[in-house]
Amino acid sequence: MANIKSAKKRILVNKTKADRNKSVKSGVKTAIKKVYAAVEANDKEAAKTALVAATSALDKAAKKGVYHKNTSARKISRLTLAVNKMA
User: Fold this and answer.
1) Burial class (CB in 10 A: 0-12, 13-18, 19+), 41
2) Tens digit of pLDDT at every position of the chain (87 positions)
3) What is the pTM of this model?
């Protein structure tokens, strides 16, 4: 454990941020899996609903800095392409 007060605080703050990032990433992964599951099941309505939720989750993650904005945009693009191919 660190001896300096500021170093102790850094450890605590970094853990808090890491926990938040882990939670956000987990939520995004779950949302993405729901989209792909609906695409696999060939359920267009469920896929569209899941796509809206996943897009929102990815945008929020990018806004918070958990994902880079280009990474978020790329994932949204791929999800949208998968849903649109179902037609």
Assistant:
1) exposed
2) 778 999 999 999 999 999 999 999 999 999 999 999 999 999 999 999 999 999 999 999 999 999 999 999 999 999 999 999 986
3) 0.86
